[in-house]
TrEMBL record:
NCBIfam families membership: iron-sulfur cluster assembly accessory protein (TIGR00049)
Database matches in PROSITE patterns: HESB
Name of protein: Iron-sulfur cluster assembly accessory protein
Gene Ontology annotations of biological process type: iron-sulfur cluster assembly
Organism whose genome encodes this protein: Celeribacter indicus
One Pfam family linked to the record: Fe-S_biosyn
């Protein structure tokens, strides 16, 4: 039984109790203070980019002799309300840059929340080869996979 003077503990892997690092408590206090000050700061997790997508981007750049980034953006339109715009481009100053072996994928700050936790991949099928996005935020999408709704 813990007394008020005991340190906060959590179970360890060996069944022993391990001491909780003090940095965890400080981090949580800071996060609570930021939220309580009315800050609109929120954390948006960027999408994941598969090694296959980075490899294809590297192949494209090698064949063109240019070093372009893959830009993934969200625009209004399409048959479901929003559509993906995937292009080769130059990075902008305010882009989120996801680097990997073979290149980089950039996302503008407006599109980023729509792509939270999505996966950007490259696929080759009988109908063609293309970059695809598996977006857990989309509630529905059209048959071509280019447009979606939230």
């Amino acid at each position: 039984m813990m007394t008020p003077g005991d340190k906060q503990m959590k179970p360890g892997f060996d069944g022993q109790r391990a001491e909780k690092p003090p940095e965890i408590d400080q981090f949580m206090r800071n996060a609570t203070e930021i939220r309580s000050e009315g800050s609109d700061m929120s954390l948006t997790l960027p999408p994941k980019v598969t090694p296959r997508a980075f490899a294809r981007l590297a192949e494209i750049n090698a064949s063109t002799g240019e070093e372009k980034v893959l830009r993934v953006a969200i625009e209004g339109g399409g048959c479901s309300g929003f559509q993906y715009d995937i292009t080769l481009d130059e990075p902008a100053e305010d882009d989120v840059v996801l680097k990997g072996e073979g290149g980089a994928v950039v996302i503008d700050p407006v599109s980023l929340p729509f792509l939270e936790n999505a996966t950007i991949d490259f696929t080759e099928e009988l109908i063609g080869a293309r970059f695809v996005i598996d977006n857990p935020n989309a509630t529905s999408s059209c048959g071509c996979g280019v447009s979606f709704s939230l």
